Amino acid sequence: MPKKILLVDDETDMIEIVSFRLKKAGYAVAVAETGTQALEKVRTELPDLILLDINLPDITGCEVCGRLKSDAVTKKIPVIFISASAENIKTIAEKCGADGFIIKPFEPQELYLKIEEHLKNGPK
Amino acid sequence: MVGGIQPDTNLAKNAGLKSVLVLTVAGERIFQKDGLQMKYSNNENKIYKVSKILAYASMLLLLTFTMLSWYNAKDSGSLFILITGISITFFLSLMIFKFSNSEFRVEKHAEKMIVKLMDINKEYKKVMEELKTAMEIKSAFTSMVSHELRTPLTSIKEGIGIVLDGSAGTINDEQKKFLELAKRNVDRLHRLINNVLDFTKLGAGKLKYNLKEEDLNKLVKEIVKAYEPVLTKKGLYIKTEFAQKMPRILLDADKISQVINNLLSNAEKFTEQGGIMVTTGYDSVSKQAVVKIIDTGHGIIKDDIDKLFQEFTTVGTKRMLGSTGLGLAICKQIIDGHFGKIYAESEPDKGSVFTFIIPVKGAKNA
Question: What is the pLDDT of residues B129-185, one digit of tens each?
Protein backbone atom coordinates (compact mmCIF):
# COMPACT_ATOMS: atom_id res chain seq x y z
CA MET A 1 0.00 0.00 0.00
CA PRO A 2 1.62 3.27 -1.03
CA LYS A 3 1.47 6.13 1.43
CA LYS A 4 -1.15 8.71 0.57
CA ILE A 5 -0.36 12.41 0.45
CA LEU A 6 -2.95 15.17 0.32
CA LEU A 7 -1.63 18.10 -1.66
CA VAL A 8 -3.38 21.43 -1.05
CA ASP A 9 -2.52 24.36 -3.32
CA ASP A 10 -4.62 26.89 -5.20
CA GLU A 11 -2.12 26.98 -8.07
CA THR A 12 -3.15 24.26 -10.51
CA ASP A 13 0.30 24.28 -12.10
CA MET A 14 1.87 23.55 -8.74
CA ILE A 15 -0.59 20.71 -8.17
CA GLU A 16 0.22 19.29 -11.60
CA ILE A 17 3.94 19.38 -11.04
CA VAL A 18 4.14 18.28 -7.44
CA SER A 19 1.62 15.48 -7.84
CA PHE A 20 3.57 14.21 -10.87
CA ARG A 21 6.72 14.15 -8.77
CA LEU A 22 5.00 12.46 -5.85
CA LYS A 23 3.39 9.80 -8.04
CA LYS A 24 6.76 9.12 -9.68
CA ALA A 25 8.27 8.73 -6.26
CA GLY A 26 5.66 6.07 -5.49
CA TYR A 27 3.11 7.93 -3.37
CA ALA A 28 -0.62 7.99 -3.84
CA VAL A 29 -1.81 11.57 -4.25
CA ALA A 30 -5.06 13.35 -3.43
CA VAL A 31 -5.48 17.04 -4.22
CA ALA A 32 -7.48 20.00 -2.95
CA GLU A 33 -7.50 23.57 -4.21
CA THR A 34 -9.13 25.36 -1.30
CA GLY A 35 -9.11 25.15 2.45
CA THR A 36 -12.70 23.92 2.62
CA GLN A 37 -11.95 21.24 0.04
CA ALA A 38 -8.88 20.23 2.01
CA LEU A 39 -10.90 19.75 5.20
CA GLU A 40 -13.42 17.57 3.33
CA LYS A 41 -10.74 15.54 1.56
CA VAL A 42 -8.90 14.82 4.78
CA ARG A 43 -12.01 13.05 6.09
CA THR A 44 -12.76 11.11 2.91
CA GLU A 45 -9.20 10.27 1.85
CA LEU A 46 -7.54 9.91 5.25
CA PRO A 47 -4.04 10.72 3.95
CA ASP A 48 -0.78 9.79 5.69
CA LEU A 49 0.60 13.29 5.25
CA ILE A 50 -0.63 16.71 4.14
CA LEU A 51 1.30 19.23 2.04
CA LEU A 52 -0.49 22.48 2.75
CA ASP A 53 -0.05 25.83 1.02
CA ILE A 54 -0.37 28.71 3.50
CA ASN A 55 -2.00 31.20 1.14
CA LEU A 56 -5.33 29.72 0.16
CA PRO A 57 -8.26 31.66 -1.30
CA ASP A 58 -10.93 30.84 1.30
CA ILE A 59 -9.51 29.88 4.66
CA THR A 60 -5.80 30.16 5.34
CA GLY A 61 -3.52 27.18 5.62
CA CYS A 62 -2.93 28.18 9.20
CA GLU A 63 -6.58 27.86 10.06
CA VAL A 64 -6.93 24.58 8.14
CA CYS A 65 -4.01 23.24 10.12
CA GLY A 66 -5.49 24.47 13.38
CA ARG A 67 -8.78 22.70 12.69
CA LEU A 68 -7.03 19.50 11.70
CA LYS A 69 -4.91 19.52 14.80
CA SER A 70 -7.89 20.08 17.11
CA ASP A 71 -9.81 17.17 15.60
CA ALA A 72 -9.11 13.80 17.22
CA VAL A 73 -9.48 11.95 13.89
CA THR A 74 -7.05 14.11 11.93
CA LYS A 75 -4.61 15.44 14.49
CA LYS A 76 -2.19 12.54 14.02
CA ILE A 77 -1.61 13.36 10.33
CA PRO A 78 1.65 15.28 9.83
CA VAL A 79 1.18 18.66 8.14
CA ILE A 80 3.95 20.30 6.10
CA PHE A 81 3.43 23.90 5.09
CA ILE A 82 4.39 25.05 1.62
CA SER A 83 5.13 28.74 1.24
CA ALA A 84 6.65 31.10 -1.29
CA SER A 85 7.60 33.39 1.52
CA ALA A 86 10.67 32.49 3.52
CA GLU A 87 9.92 35.30 5.92
CA ASN A 88 9.05 34.11 9.42
CA ILE A 89 7.94 30.77 8.03
CA LYS A 90 9.40 28.89 10.97
CA THR A 91 7.50 31.00 13.47
CA ILE A 92 4.30 30.79 11.45
CA ALA A 93 4.58 27.00 11.17
CA GLU A 94 5.13 26.69 14.92
CA LYS A 95 2.29 29.05 15.73
CA CYS A 96 -0.17 27.25 13.49
CA GLY A 97 0.84 23.85 14.79
CA ALA A 98 2.32 22.53 11.54
CA ASP A 99 4.90 19.77 11.80
CA GLY A 100 7.24 21.19 9.19
CA PHE A 101 7.60 23.57 6.26
CA ILE A 102 9.17 23.80 2.83
CA ILE A 103 9.91 26.97 0.87
CA LYS A 104 9.13 27.43 -2.83
CA PRO A 105 10.94 26.86 -5.09
CA PHE A 106 12.29 23.59 -3.72
CA GLU A 107 14.45 20.80 -5.07
CA PRO A 108 12.55 17.50 -5.46
CA GLN A 109 15.07 15.72 -3.23
CA GLU A 110 14.40 18.23 -0.48
CA LEU A 111 10.68 17.50 -0.74
CA TYR A 112 11.10 13.71 -0.64
CA LEU A 113 13.42 13.93 2.34
CA LYS A 114 10.99 16.10 4.25
CA ILE A 115 8.05 13.83 3.45
CA GLU A 116 9.95 10.68 4.45
CA GLU A 117 11.13 12.29 7.67
CA HIS A 118 7.61 13.18 8.72
CA LEU A 119 6.08 9.88 7.58
CA LYS A 120 8.63 8.08 9.72
CA ASN A 121 8.39 10.31 12.79
CA GLY A 122 4.70 11.10 12.64
CA PRO A 123 3.32 14.33 14.02
CA LYS A 124 5.05 16.22 16.80
CA MET B 1 23.43 83.47 22.77
CA VAL B 2 21.35 80.68 21.30
CA GLY B 3 20.52 77.99 23.78
CA GLY B 4 19.50 75.27 21.34
CA ILE B 5 16.38 73.97 19.69
CA GLN B 6 13.96 72.23 21.99
CA PRO B 7 10.89 70.93 20.20
CA ASP B 8 7.88 70.94 22.50
CA THR B 9 4.60 69.63 21.20
CA ASN B 10 2.57 71.06 24.06
CA LEU B 11 3.58 74.53 23.15
CA ALA B 12 2.41 73.98 19.59
CA LYS B 13 -1.21 74.34 20.67
CA ASN B 14 -0.59 77.64 22.34
CA ALA B 15 1.79 78.94 19.77
CA GLY B 16 -0.30 78.16 16.74
CA LEU B 17 1.34 79.21 13.55
CA LYS B 18 2.55 82.56 14.78
CA SER B 19 5.86 83.06 16.40
CA VAL B 20 5.86 84.16 19.99
CA LEU B 21 8.65 85.77 21.87
CA VAL B 22 8.55 85.47 25.61
CA LEU B 23 10.95 87.33 27.81
CA THR B 24 11.50 85.78 31.18
CA VAL B 25 12.60 87.53 34.33
CA ALA B 26 16.01 85.89 34.26
CA GLY B 27 16.75 87.58 30.96
CA GLU B 28 16.12 84.37 29.10
CA ARG B 29 14.21 84.53 25.90
CA ILE B 30 11.89 81.71 24.99
CA PHE B 31 10.98 81.63 21.40
CA GLN B 32 8.04 79.67 20.10
CA LYS B 33 6.95 78.97 16.58
CA ASP B 34 5.01 76.14 14.95
CA GLY B 35 5.22 74.06 18.06
CA LEU B 36 8.92 74.46 18.37
CA GLN B 37 10.50 76.12 21.30
CA MET B 38 13.84 77.73 21.44
CA LYS B 39 15.45 79.23 24.44
CA TYR B 40 18.34 81.54 24.53
CA SER B 41 19.70 83.47 27.43
CA ASN B 42 21.44 86.79 27.61
CA ASN B 43 24.13 85.68 30.00
CA GLU B 44 26.81 87.53 28.13
CA ASN B 45 24.80 90.71 28.44
CA LYS B 46 25.26 90.81 32.22
CA ILE B 47 28.86 91.91 31.74
CA TYR B 48 27.68 94.40 29.20
CA LYS B 49 24.99 95.72 31.54
CA VAL B 50 27.49 96.18 34.39
CA SER B 51 29.87 98.04 32.15
CA LYS B 52 27.03 100.20 30.89
CA ILE B 53 26.09 101.16 34.47
CA LEU B 54 29.75 101.79 35.28
CA ALA B 55 30.07 104.01 32.20
CA TYR B 56 26.99 106.05 33.19
CA ALA B 57 28.23 106.32 36.78
CA SER B 58 31.66 107.55 35.73
CA MET B 59 30.03 110.02 33.34
CA LEU B 60 27.90 111.35 36.19
CA LEU B 61 30.95 111.56 38.42
CA LEU B 62 32.89 113.41 35.75
CA LEU B 63 30.03 115.84 35.20
CA THR B 64 29.61 116.48 38.93
CA PHE B 65 33.33 116.96 39.40
CA THR B 66 33.67 119.44 36.53
CA MET B 67 30.56 121.34 37.56
CA LEU B 68 31.77 121.57 41.16
CA SER B 69 35.22 122.80 40.13
CA TRP B 70 33.64 125.45 37.85
CA TYR B 71 31.23 126.52 40.64
CA ASN B 72 34.09 126.94 43.08
CA ALA B 73 36.57 128.73 40.83
CA LYS B 74 34.35 130.37 38.16
CA ASP B 75 37.38 131.12 35.99
CA SER B 76 38.06 130.40 32.33
CA GLY B 77 40.21 127.38 33.17
CA SER B 78 37.44 125.57 35.09
CA LEU B 79 34.91 126.59 32.40
CA PHE B 80 37.11 124.89 29.83
CA ILE B 81 37.23 121.76 32.01
CA LEU B 82 33.42 121.86 32.36
CA ILE B 83 32.92 122.17 28.59
CA THR B 84 35.38 119.34 28.03
CA GLY B 85 33.52 117.23 30.65
CA ILE B 86 30.16 117.88 29.02
CA SER B 87 31.59 117.06 25.58
CA ILE B 88 33.11 113.82 26.80
CA THR B 89 29.86 112.84 28.55
CA PHE B 90 27.85 113.64 25.45
CA PHE B 91 30.25 111.70 23.27
CA LEU B 92 30.21 108.68 25.60
CA SER B 93 26.40 108.70 25.81
CA LEU B 94 26.26 108.72 22.06
CA MET B 95 28.63 105.73 21.93
CA ILE B 96 26.66 103.78 24.49
CA PHE B 97 23.41 104.51 22.70
CA LYS B 98 24.86 103.41 19.39
CA PHE B 99 26.25 100.28 20.94
CA SER B 100 22.93 99.35 22.58
CA ASN B 101 21.18 100.01 19.33
CA SER B 102 23.49 97.72 17.43
CA GLU B 103 23.09 95.09 20.11
CA PHE B 104 19.36 95.41 19.70
CA ARG B 105 19.73 94.92 15.97
CA VAL B 106 21.92 91.87 16.53
CA GLU B 107 19.18 90.40 18.71
CA LYS B 108 16.55 91.12 16.09
CA HIS B 109 18.73 89.47 13.51
CA ALA B 110 19.27 86.47 15.75
CA GLU B 111 15.54 86.12 16.17
CA LYS B 112 15.07 86.17 12.43
CA MET B 113 17.70 83.48 12.09
CA ILE B 114 15.97 81.38 14.72
CA VAL B 115 12.69 81.62 12.85
CA LYS B 116 14.48 80.55 9.71
CA LEU B 117 16.13 77.65 11.53
CA MET B 118 12.81 76.54 12.85
CA ASP B 119 11.33 76.62 9.38
CA ILE B 120 14.22 74.57 8.07
CA ASN B 121 13.82 72.11 10.91
CA LYS B 122 10.13 71.76 10.17
CA GLU B 123 10.83 71.22 6.48
CA TYR B 124 13.51 68.68 7.33
CA LYS B 125 11.11 66.74 9.53
CA LYS B 126 8.53 66.69 6.78
CA VAL B 127 11.06 65.44 4.24
CA MET B 128 12.24 62.76 6.66
CA GLU B 129 8.67 61.57 7.15
CA GLU B 130 8.15 61.41 3.40
CA LEU B 131 11.41 59.55 2.96
CA LYS B 132 10.45 57.04 5.63
CA THR B 133 7.11 56.39 3.94
CA ALA B 134 8.82 56.02 0.57
CA MET B 135 11.29 53.53 2.01
CA GLU B 136 8.49 51.52 3.54
CA ILE B 137 6.59 51.43 0.26
CA LYS B 138 9.73 50.40 -1.57
CA SER B 139 10.37 47.63 0.90
CA ALA B 140 6.79 46.34 0.81
CA PHE B 141 6.78 46.50 -2.97
CA THR B 142 10.02 44.58 -3.41
CA SER B 143 8.91 42.00 -0.92
CA MET B 144 5.54 41.56 -2.65
CA VAL B 145 7.11 41.35 -6.11
CA SER B 146 9.66 38.81 -4.94
CA HIS B 147 6.96 36.59 -3.46
CA GLU B 148 4.79 36.83 -6.50
CA LEU B 149 7.80 35.88 -8.62
CA ARG B 150 8.61 32.84 -6.56
CA THR B 151 5.39 31.00 -7.27
CA PRO B 152 5.60 30.91 -11.08
CA LEU B 153 9.33 30.35 -10.76
CA THR B 154 8.71 27.16 -8.82
CA SER B 155 6.45 25.84 -11.58
CA ILE B 156 8.96 26.70 -14.30
CA LYS B 157 11.86 25.24 -12.39
CA GLU B 158 10.07 22.03 -11.57
CA GLY B 159 8.54 21.73 -15.03
CA ILE B 160 11.99 21.90 -16.58
CA GLY B 161 13.38 19.62 -13.89
CA ILE B 162 10.85 16.88 -14.59
CA VAL B 163 11.69 16.76 -18.30
CA LEU B 164 15.42 17.21 -17.72
CA ASP B 165 15.90 14.35 -15.27
CA GLY B 166 14.00 11.97 -17.55
CA SER B 167 11.04 11.56 -15.22
CA ALA B 168 8.69 12.28 -18.11
CA GLY B 169 10.52 10.08 -20.62
CA THR B 170 13.93 10.03 -22.28
CA ILE B 171 15.23 13.12 -24.06
CA ASN B 172 18.10 13.46 -26.53
CA ASP B 173 21.35 15.32 -25.88
CA GLU B 174 20.32 18.38 -27.83
CA GLN B 175 17.09 18.71 -25.87
CA LYS B 176 19.00 18.14 -22.66
CA LYS B 177 21.49 20.89 -23.54
CA PHE B 178 18.81 23.51 -23.97
CA LEU B 179 16.84 22.43 -20.97
CA GLU B 180 20.00 22.68 -18.90
CA LEU B 181 20.46 26.18 -20.24
CA ALA B 182 16.91 27.02 -19.22
CA LYS B 183 17.39 25.51 -15.76
CA ARG B 184 20.66 27.38 -15.23
CA ASN B 185 18.91 30.66 -15.93
CA VAL B 186 15.93 29.86 -13.76
CA ASP B 187 18.35 29.10 -10.94
CA ARG B 188 19.99 32.43 -11.61
CA LEU B 189 16.64 34.19 -11.41
CA HIS B 190 15.95 32.38 -8.17
CA ARG B 191 19.23 33.59 -6.69
CA LEU B 192 18.48 37.12 -7.83
CA ILE B 193 15.07 37.14 -6.18
CA ASN B 194 16.52 35.76 -2.97
CA ASN B 195 19.19 38.44 -2.98
CA VAL B 196 16.68 41.20 -3.57
CA LEU B 197 14.53 39.87 -0.74
CA ASP B 198 17.50 39.56 1.58
CA PHE B 199 18.64 43.02 0.73
CA THR B 200 15.21 44.55 1.27
CA LYS B 201 14.97 42.89 4.65
CA LEU B 202 18.45 44.03 5.58
CA GLY B 203 17.75 47.56 4.40
CA ALA B 204 14.54 47.76 6.37
CA GLY B 205 16.41 46.52 9.43
CA LYS B 206 13.91 43.70 9.61
CA LEU B 207 16.51 41.01 9.70
CA LYS B 208 16.87 39.49 13.14
CA TYR B 209 20.22 38.27 14.25
CA ASN B 210 20.14 34.90 15.91
CA LEU B 211 23.31 35.20 17.94
CA LYS B 212 25.05 32.25 19.51
CA GLU B 213 28.59 31.59 20.60
CA GLU B 214 30.02 29.73 17.65
CA ASP B 215 33.23 28.05 16.57
CA LEU B 216 34.30 30.24 13.67
CA ASN B 217 37.08 27.86 12.57
CA LYS B 218 34.60 25.02 12.28
CA LEU B 219 32.16 27.19 10.37
CA VAL B 220 34.83 28.19 7.85
CA LYS B 221 36.06 24.61 7.57
CA GLU B 222 32.60 23.32 6.66
CA ILE B 223 31.98 25.94 4.00
CA VAL B 224 35.41 25.47 2.46
CA LYS B 225 34.80 21.73 2.32
CA ALA B 226 31.57 22.27 0.41
CA TYR B 227 33.46 24.42 -2.12
CA GLU B 228 36.28 21.96 -2.70
CA PRO B 229 34.63 19.96 -5.54
CA VAL B 230 33.77 23.09 -7.55
CA LEU B 231 37.30 24.43 -7.26
CA THR B 232 39.01 21.11 -7.98
CA LYS B 233 36.86 20.76 -11.08
CA LYS B 234 38.08 24.17 -12.23
CA GLY B 235 41.68 23.17 -11.53
CA LEU B 236 42.11 25.56 -8.61
CA TYR B 237 43.63 24.86 -5.23
CA ILE B 238 42.00 25.69 -1.92
CA LYS B 239 44.11 26.08 1.19
CA THR B 240 43.20 26.93 4.72
CA GLU B 241 45.05 28.30 7.70
CA PHE B 242 43.25 28.39 11.02
CA ALA B 243 43.99 30.42 14.12
CA GLN B 244 45.51 28.24 16.84
CA LYS B 245 43.55 29.97 19.53
CA MET B 246 40.09 31.05 18.60
CA PRO B 247 37.55 31.79 21.29
CA ARG B 248 33.89 31.20 20.63
CA ILE B 249 32.48 34.18 18.78
CA LEU B 250 29.00 35.57 19.31
CA LEU B 251 27.52 35.52 15.82
CA ASP B 252 24.65 34.50 13.61
CA ALA B 253 26.02 31.34 11.98
CA ASP B 254 23.60 31.40 9.02
CA LYS B 255 24.39 34.97 8.15
CA ILE B 256 28.14 34.72 8.62
CA SER B 257 28.02 31.56 6.46
CA GLN B 258 26.23 33.60 3.84
CA VAL B 259 29.08 36.13 3.92
CA ILE B 260 31.80 33.46 3.64
CA ASN B 261 29.88 31.68 0.89
CA ASN B 262 29.48 34.89 -1.02
CA LEU B 263 33.16 35.81 -0.74
CA LEU B 264 34.24 32.31 -1.76
CA SER B 265 31.83 32.26 -4.67
CA ASN B 266 33.21 35.61 -5.87
CA ALA B 267 36.79 34.42 -5.49
CA GLU B 268 35.97 31.30 -7.51
CA LYS B 269 34.17 33.31 -10.19
CA PHE B 270 37.09 35.65 -10.79
CA THR B 271 39.96 33.18 -10.53
CA GLU B 272 41.13 31.15 -13.52
CA GLN B 273 44.57 30.12 -12.31
CA GLY B 274 46.10 29.40 -8.95
CA GLY B 275 43.52 29.17 -6.23
CA ILE B 276 42.03 30.41 -3.03
CA MET B 277 43.42 30.61 0.47
CA VAL B 278 41.18 31.07 3.49
CA THR B 279 42.67 32.11 6.80
CA THR B 280 41.25 32.80 10.23
CA GLY B 281 42.96 34.79 12.93
CA TYR B 282 42.30 36.12 16.37
CA ASP B 283 43.63 39.34 17.82
CA SER B 284 43.64 38.92 21.58
CA VAL B 285 44.38 42.60 22.15
CA SER B 286 41.41 44.05 20.27
CA LYS B 287 39.40 40.87 20.87
CA GLN B 288 38.47 40.47 17.25
CA ALA B 289 38.30 37.56 14.85
CA VAL B 290 39.68 38.07 11.35
CA VAL B 291 38.77 36.03 8.29
CA LYS B 292 40.61 36.49 5.01
CA ILE B 293 39.76 35.08 1.59
CA ILE B 294 42.77 35.42 -0.66
CA ASP B 295 42.59 34.62 -4.35
CA THR B 296 44.99 34.73 -7.28
CA GLY B 297 42.30 35.98 -9.65
CA HIS B 298 41.73 38.97 -11.91
CA GLY B 299 42.05 41.52 -9.17
CA ILE B 300 40.25 44.82 -8.93
CA ILE B 301 41.43 48.27 -9.97
CA LYS B 302 41.71 50.88 -7.25
CA ASP B 303 38.74 52.98 -8.37
CA ASP B 304 36.49 49.96 -8.28
CA ILE B 305 37.46 48.86 -4.77
CA ASP B 306 35.52 51.74 -3.22
CA LYS B 307 32.42 50.81 -5.20
CA LEU B 308 32.50 47.13 -4.31
CA PHE B 309 30.23 47.24 -1.30
CA GLN B 310 27.60 49.52 -2.78
CA GLU B 311 24.36 47.95 -3.88
CA PHE B 312 23.64 47.28 -7.55
CA THR B 313 27.20 47.75 -8.65
CA THR B 314 29.24 45.20 -10.48
CA VAL B 315 32.78 46.18 -11.25
CA GLY B 316 35.20 45.11 -13.93
CA THR B 317 35.20 45.38 -17.67
CA LYS B 318 32.62 42.74 -18.41
CA ARG B 319 29.45 42.18 -16.52
CA MET B 320 29.52 38.84 -14.80
CA LEU B 321 26.78 36.43 -15.70
CA GLY B 322 24.53 35.71 -12.79
CA SER B 323 25.72 38.63 -10.75
CA THR B 324 23.11 40.71 -8.99
CA GLY B 325 25.37 43.41 -7.68
CA LEU B 326 23.90 42.81 -4.26
CA GLY B 327 26.13 40.08 -2.85
CA LEU B 328 28.80 42.29 -1.32
CA ALA B 329 26.28 44.91 -0.23
CA ILE B 330 24.49 42.16 1.69
CA CYS B 331 27.83 41.00 3.16
CA LYS B 332 28.52 44.52 4.36
CA GLN B 333 25.07 44.80 5.93
CA ILE B 334 25.56 41.53 7.78
CA ILE B 335 29.05 42.41 9.00
CA ASP B 336 27.81 45.87 10.04
CA GLY B 337 25.09 44.08 11.96
CA HIS B 338 27.84 42.28 13.87
CA PHE B 339 29.61 45.60 14.50
CA GLY B 340 32.46 44.40 12.36
CA LYS B 341 34.34 45.62 9.33
CA ILE B 342 34.66 44.28 5.80
CA TYR B 343 37.10 45.51 3.20
CA ALA B 344 38.99 44.50 0.09
CA GLU B 345 42.57 44.91 -1.03
CA SER B 346 43.59 44.09 -4.55
CA GLU B 347 46.03 44.49 -7.37
CA PRO B 348 44.92 43.87 -10.95
CA ASP B 349 46.08 40.50 -12.34
CA LYS B 350 47.60 39.52 -8.99
CA GLY B 351 44.51 38.74 -6.98
CA SER B 352 42.33 40.08 -4.22
CA VAL B 353 42.09 39.80 -0.47
CA PHE B 354 38.71 40.17 1.17
CA THR B 355 38.83 40.58 4.91
CA PHE B 356 36.14 40.73 7.50
CA ILE B 357 36.64 41.40 11.17
CA ILE B 358 34.09 40.76 13.87
CA PRO B 359 34.38 41.49 17.57
CA VAL B 360 34.14 38.52 19.92
CA LYS B 361 31.23 40.09 21.70
CA GLY B 362 29.08 43.12 21.24
CA ALA B 363 27.20 42.37 18.07
CA LYS B 364 23.70 43.74 17.56
CA ASN B 365 21.00 42.60 20.01
CA ALA B 366 23.76 41.13 22.13
Answer: 999 988 888 777 877 777 778 888 888 988 999 999 888 899 999 999 999 989 888
pLDDT at residue B11, as a whole number: 42
Q: What is the CA radius of gyration of chain B?
A: 37
C-alpha A84/C-alpha B252 separation (Å) is 24
| Amino acid occupying residue A80 | I
Residues A21, B154: C-beta atoms closer than 8 Å: no
Q: Which chain B residues contact residue A13 at CB under 8 A?
A: 152, 155, 159
Instruction: Give CB contacts under 8 A, 24+ apart, made by A61-67.
Output: A61/A8, A61/A35, A61/A96, A62/A92, A62/A95, A62/A96, A63/A35, A63/A96, A64/A8, A64/A35, A64/A38, A64/A39, A65/A96, A65/A97, A65/A98, A66/A96, A66/A97, A67/A39
Mutation target among B144, B145, B150, B158 for the A interface, most CBs of A within 10 A: B158
Q: Residue B208 carries which DSSP code? A: P
Instruction: Point out the residue among A20, A21, A105 whose CB comes nearest to the CB of B190.
Output: A105
Report the residue of chain A nearest B155, measured CA to CA: A14
The interface pTM score, or ipTM, of the predicted complex is 0.74
